[in-house]
Design a protein that fits this description.
The complex is a heterodimer of chains A (about 280) and B (about 290). In chain A, about 75% of the residues lie in helices and about 0% in strands. Chain A is mostly helical and about 280 residues long. In chain A, helix 8 crosses helix 9. Chain B has about 290 residues and is mainly alpha-helical. Chain B folds into two domains: about 60 residues, no CATH class; about 200 residues, MetI-like (MetI-like fold, Orthogonal Bundle). Chain B is built from eleven helices and two strands; from the N terminus they run H-E-E-H-H-H-H-H-H-H-H-H-H. In chain B, helix 4 crosses helix 10, helix 4 packs across helix 11 and helix 8 crosses helix 9. The longest helix of chain B has about 35 residues. At the A-B interface, helix 2, helix 3, helix 4, helix 6 and helix 7 of A face helix 2, helix 3, helix 4, helix 6 and helix 7 of B.
């Protein structure tokens, strides 16, 4: 009895079937070693030397010295850029959300046959592949410089994110409610409206507000490639070494991003009670 | 009130509020009940949200500067773009794209590693059950928020100003942008960990490194690897862009080709990015299947 509890027994060698807590995993240790070797190798490619670090520190000191105090004298231009960024974010979010609804439904494997959901999933994957700024480059060529290119680029990004997660949310729903609605003789659209949508609406709102935040962040950046918004003045200020202006623009961007985050948290709270209901079916 | 809510919850998603209008003095009179899903306050809040969304949309649509001529022109421009891109200049790939692509992957991977190394302590400090001091929690969370609210392109610009253009700036930009992401999610995973194993270890007199390694680590391990993989996947996409501002990687090749209007080379670069992103996604899915 006692020996059984002791597990290993009195001899040094563990008897087969005995267990050691936290047994060393040699394969994992080998993996860690490989990871460390890789990091050393990759870091050596960066050409990072002590001298460079020291000059870097000096540069950083000069850089921060020039950044403060922030120069808000061109606040009108900053405000105009921010306004355009926000417009881009709002329009892109609305467009992206409206497009994501049908695409998400089409991509849900439990509602749609394979020949419908594969193309829809391919569209979503394509939308997700490229960073919004790269998509913006293409759209700048297609529709010219300005806000429209930014809007279209962020619509693509929104579809890639919302439709993907929306389709996954639909795939997780409880089919009991769908069946119940279908049993009443409801049409397909009614099944969607009363059987599926109530189960995923809260999560859809969650994804949408998250993507809105993300669109606000990205709308301040697409200007770097000429797609409108505050990004262009920011990049120009950087290239002219007007670091005090850069600092002012950055402060303004962070403030706007924070405000939008507070706003979308508020929206989530308004629909907050529904969030728990959205999770209800999966618990049961 | 409570009873009616309980019954109603089984019937409809959301809470129900019963409005009763029956004459109090007359027993047996017809009781008319009106069931409503939301209270007046909830309905008002929802209406405010809808109103705000519509107002923001209409305002933006009205004031945004879009030049319609450019829009009508778009199909012709896209056609022109595709014609210029086709056929892609594949000979350009071994010449200068391949090295940049490898550099991009190194930037993404090394950036993720640095981010994890810095994010783990911050995540530990931000988790209220690991670090009981509220002040330290708040400071750590503030650091994580700062890291997240600065876009990786801006981080890249900052590091270029410090270290000059090149992959070093890009790697650090990736790392500093990722700290907030990894640290926040790791902190949340730690806060969700069960206290049982930790308390058992504490009762046996384990020192705090053992608490972390044997108490928390096994619990957050799956979440940790999942979020590291997710961040690496995101970083592969992001590191492709950083070159546009001069922070190394394949974005530099993209920028050069675009500035010279060599659209057939742009096409090759885009194809390369596309391939790498798909490969990264396949790798992440495979590793996730193996590890988790």
């Amino acid at each position: 009895m006692n020996e059984a509890l002791a597990g290993g027994g009195s001899s040094g060698k563990p008897v087969p079937g005995s267990r050691r807590a936290f047994e060393p995993d040699w394969l994992a240790r080998l993996g860690w070693l490989a990871a460390i070797l890789y990091v050393v190798y990759a870091a050596s490619l960066l050409d990072f030397t002590w001298a460079r670090f020291v000059t870097g520190l000096e540069q950083a000191a000069r850089f921060f010295d020039r950044m403060f105090p922030p120069d808000f004298s061109r606040w009108e231009a900053v405000l105009k850029g921010l306004k355009e960024s926000l417009e881009i974010a709002v329009l892109a979010s609305v467009g992206g959300i409206l497009l994501s609804l049908p695409i998400g439904f089409l991509a849900a494997r439990n509602l749609m046959p394979a020949w419908v959901n594969w193309p829809a999933r391919a569209v979503i994957a394509l939308c997700r592949t490229f960073h919004p700024v790269i998509v913006a480059i293409i759209f700048v060529k297609a529709v010219g410089f300005g806000a429209l290119a930014g809007i279209l680029a962020l619509v693509i990004a929104s579809v890639g994110f919302i439709a993907k997660l929306f389709a996954e949310a639909i795939e997780e729903i409880s089919l009991k409610q769908v069946e119940a609605v279908r049993a009443t003789g409801a049409s397909f659209m009614n099944v969607i409206a009363f059987g599926v949508l109530p189960q995923v609406a809260a999560r859809f709102i969650g994804f949408s507000t998250y993507q809105f935040d993300s669109n606000v962040r990205n709308s301040t950046m697409v200007g770097i490639v000429g797609a409108g918004g505050i990004g262009a003045p920011l990049f120009v200020a950087f290239q002219r070494f007007d670091y005090d202006v850069v600092c002012a623009i950055l402060i303004a961007i962070v403030a706007v991003v924070f405000l939008c985050e507070i706003l979308s948290n508020q929206v989530k709270r308004v629909f907050g009670e529904a969030v728990q209901d959205g999770r209800e079916p999966r618990r049961g | 009130m409570d009873g009616s809510r309980g019954v109603a919850e089984n019937l409809t998603p959301g809470t129900a509020v019963r409005r009763e209008s029956h004459a109090s003095g007359q027993p047996g009179s017809a009781v008319r009940r009106e069931w409503q899903r939301f209270t007046a306050g909830e309905r008002l809040a929802r209406f405010a949200v809808y109103f705000f969304v519509v107002a923001a949309f209409v305002l933006s649509l009205g004031t945004v500067e879009v030049i319609p001529e450019f829009l009508w022109d778009a199909p012709a421009q896209v056609q022109d773009l595709l014609v210029r891109m086709w056929p892609p200049d594949y000979a350009h790939y071994p010449a200068s794209v391949h090295a940049a692509l490898v550099e991009t992957l190194h930037m993404a991977t090394l950036g993720t590693v640095i981010a994890v190394l810095l994010a783990v302590p911050l995540g530990l400090l931000a988790a209220s059950n690991v670090m009981p001091s509220r002040t330290v929690n708040t400071v750590a969370k503030l650091a994580l928020v700062t890291s997240r609210s600065v876009n990786s392109l801006v981080w890249a610009l900052l590091f270029i100003a410090v270290f000059g253009p090149g992959a070093l700036a890009g790697t650090l930009a990736i790392a500093f942008r990722s700290i907030g992401f990894v640290g926040k999610l790791l902190g949340e995973a730690l806060e969700e960990a069960h206290r049982g194993p930790v308390e058992a270890l504490k009762a046996s007199g384990a020192p705090w490194p053992s608490l972390l390694v044997f108490g928390y680590w096994p619990q957050v391990k799956p979440a940790f690897w999942a979020l590291v993989l997710l961040r690496w996947d995101i970083n592969v996409r992001e590191s492709a862009v950083l070159g546009l501002v001069g922070a190394g990687g394949i974005g530099v090749a993209l920028n050069t080709a675009m500035n010279l209007f060599q659209w057939d080379r742009v096409a090759v670069v885009l194809l390369a990015i596309f391939a790498v992103v798909i490969v990264a996604e396949v790798v992440v899915t495979w590793v996730r299947g193996r590890i988790l």
